[in-house]
Amino acid sequence: MKRILIVSALTAGIVAVTTGAAYASQYIAYEGPGFTGRSVLIDACGPSDIPFGGSYKWYGDGQAGRMYNQPGTRGPMHFKLPADDGAEQRSPVGWKSIFIEC
């Protein structure tokens, strides 16, 4: 009987972790204006440097994004992207890093 309970608890834990990881906010940085050139997807929790500043798209899916004008999320937060909505800008942005709140 104990064996069945342990397996059930493990299965429930795996399902809970997998479900939580399935939906994450995403920041896509583009090299050029108008969503052109190379791009990078940032969806990791915590701090990430942004390699491109030509334009961006944000897909808020539960986590907000704090934007910084310096690498390494140093200095004051410049802007906060919403946790429950999208945003985009076709022209260049000065953000150098993001902190996705998870």
Automatic annotation (TrEMBL):
Originating organism: Streptosporangium carneum
Taxonomic lineage: Bacteria, Bacillati, Actinomycetota, Actinomycetes, Streptosporangiales
A Gene Ontology biological process term: defense response
Source organism superkingdom: Bacteria
Signal sequence annotation: 1-24
Name by which UniProt lists this protein: MiAMP1 protein
Any matching Pfam family: MiAMP1
Record keywords: Signal
Entries under Gene3D superfamilies matching the protein: 2.60.20.30
InterPro entries reported in the protein's UniProt record: Antimic/Inh_G_crystallin-like (IPR015791), Antimicrobial_MiAMP1 (IPR015201), G_crystallin-like (IPR011024)
